[in-house]
Write a structure and sequence with these properties.
Elements (H helix, E strand, L loop, with lengths): L2 H12 L3 E10 L2 E11 L4 E5 L6 H8 L12 E4 L7 H4 L3 E4 L13 H6 L16 H13 L15 H13 L5 E5 L7 H17 L2 E6 L11 E6 L2 E7 H4 L2 H8 L5 E4 L2 E4 L1
Parallel strand pairs: 3-7, 3-8, 5-6, 6-7
Antiparallel strand pairs: 1-2, 1-4, 8-9, 10-11
Length: 271
């Protein structure tokens, strides 16, 4: 590890994960995030809840520097305490789980190779990529954490949606990140796969991995998630303890429809 990389790791270890102040983000000609102010502690478990099109995914992209805020007086973005990062270094400190694996070659890539490719943010292990023994060991470790070693030699194109989601999360874990960002992870999963995913995320949370979970499904909000952020029309309209945010009155206002909340032991569901 170089001197700069060591310093970056020490800063990340000591700092909050995220600080956004007066952040506005445009996609094309349209402003989709408005005056966002947000602090997330490293290791914190947070859910971001809101209707489709409210800006949740754009907020995740702002957190991961896939989009950049409009430059205005008073605007600030700090990730692990720093305003400027080499993106290659930064992405070693958090893992991102999207809806799909990247790239057309993924279907004919084995599960283990797809996980190793996470070190390079690549779709597969292209011939020009230098894979070390440490990378292979970390990838096997990540698959073990996901209880997915049986997927190591299976082609991703032959996996079920739930198995692919295990590979996605394992890819995000190869750097042993302190924070995992998940963008609507239960989409396209059947009931059994949703249950499996939620049990996996609970285990990661209990092991100390911080979670930032974007969803519009109440059932995705794990019992370990103690803080809920509500979004509507590109703005944060609520931020606080789950018991205060997840009420029928608040959610009915958020979704502009009557919402009923049911409870089953530690879980919530809505209709």
């Amino acid at each position: 590890m170089t001197e700069n990389e060591t310093a970056a790791a020490e800063i990340a270890e000591q700092s909050d994960f995220l600080e956004l102040r007066q952040v506005n983000v445009a996609r094309g000609e349209r402003v989709v995030l408005h005056d966002v102010n947000l602090v997330v502690r490293a290791g914190e478990h947070v859910a971001i809840l809101g209707p489709n099109g409210c800006g949740k995914s754009t907020l995740i992209m702002a957190m991961t520097c896939q989009v950049y805020p409009m430059v205005r007086p008073g605007m600030a973005v700090r990730i692990f305490g720093r305003e400027r990062w080499d993106l290659t270094q930064l992405r070693r400190h958090f893992g991102v789980v999207g809806a799909e694996l990247p790239g057309e070659r993924t279907a004919v890539t084995t599960g283990l190779d797809a996980v190793i490719a996470g070190f390079f943010s690549a779709s597969t292990l292209w011939p020009n990529l230098h894979v070390t023994e440490m990378m292979r060991e970390r990838a096997v470790e990540a698959l073990e954490r996901m209880e997915g070693l049986h997927l190591a030699e299976q082609l991703v194109g032959e996996m079920s949606a739930g198995e692919k989601r295990r590979i996605l999360i394992a890819r995000a874990l190869v750097h042993r990140p302190k924070q995992l960002l998940l963008d609507e992870p239960s989409n396209a999963l059947d009931l059994a796969a949703q249950r499996e995913l939620r049990e996996t995320l609970r285990r990661l949370a209990q092991e100390g991995t911080g979670l930032v979970l974007v969803t519009h499904h109440l059932g995705d909000i794990l019992p370990e998630i103690e803080r809920v952020i509500l979004m509507r029309a590109g703005r944060i309209v609520g931020d606080g303890p789950r018991g205060e945010m997840l009420t029928e009155a608040r959610l009915s206002e958020l979704f502009h429809a009557p919402v009923r909340i049911g409870r089953d032991e530690e879980w919530l569901h809505s209709w």
